[in-house]
Design goal:
Layout lengths: L8 H18 L9 H13 L7 E5 L5 H8 L4 E6 L2 H14 L5 E4 L12 E7 L1 H5 L6 H15 E11 L4 H7 L4 E7 L3 E4 L2 E4 L2 E7 L1
Parallel strand pairs: 1-2, 1-4, 2-3, 4-5
Antiparallel strand pairs: 5-9, 6-9, 7-8
Helix pairs in contact: 1-4
Length: 210
């Protein structure tokens, strides 16, 4: 991929500072990455597979924290969201307060250098964070490897990893996460037709840690 400001912390700090101000002004929680159907897709999979409601869930790059709120509304109790942008965590804290979801834990954390207490999760969820890392103008390849290494540390053996991406195909993601993870399922996403060929603009996969 071509390097982009979308891969820089400065971009996300500025973006979430704007969203935080907008929330304080008019109560708008901001953009939901990949739309509401992306959250429904994740929750439906968890419910279909009868994932226990007390399972520990980590939202990697939580942004405004809306996914965690929806998980809490669905009955999930052990929820943690991390983001390397302090402004994102401030925004997600405001959203949490507005929704009255005091049981959601939120932390400023860089997933590429996670703290020691960030471990033992049953489920990790990523909606767009791996995409952003892949656009880093610095060492994107090295940072993707750091990401996979961090995922292996924070996710329990046999834990589930649900990733939604608009930059990577299924085959590319299988290659990126080939070490330590195996594919369980591809989740249905909206299809488009271009030049007689049908494709997906978004890829959603479920991996299991070996």
């Amino acid at each position: 991929f071509s390097p982009s400001v979308l891969g820089t912390r400065e971009h996300w700090d500025a973006a979430y500072e704007r969203e935080l101000q907008t929330f304080q002004d008019i109560g708008d929680t901001g953009e939901i990455w990949f739309g509401e159907e992306s959250m429904v897709r994740i929750i439906r999979w968890l419910e279909k597979h009868k994932v226990p409601l007390d399972s520990s869930v980590l939202d990697i790059g939580t942004g405004n924290g809306v996914l965690l709120v929806e998980l809490a509304k669905s009955g999930y109790m052990n929820l943690t969201g991390i983001d390397y942008s302090p402004s994102a965590i401030q925004l997600s804290e405001k959203v949490r307060e507005k929704e009255g979801m005091s049981n959601i834990k939120l932390k400023v954390e860089d997933f590429l250098a996670p703290s020691a207490d960030l471990s033992g999760f049953d489920i990790c969820i990523d909606k767009g964070t791996f995409d952003a890392i892949s656009l880093d103008p610095g060492d994107a390849v090295g940072k993707r490897k750091l990401y996979v290494g961090s995922l292996g540390r924070v996710l329990k053996p046999e834990g589930f990893f649900l990733i939604t991406s608009c930059n990577w195909t299924k085959e590319e993601l299988l290659n990126e996460f080939r070490e330590g993870f195996e594919i369980l399922e591809e989740l249905p996403t909206p299809k488009f037709c271009f030049g007689g060929r049908i494709g997906n603009s978004v890829t959603a996969l479920v991996f299991q840690r070996k």
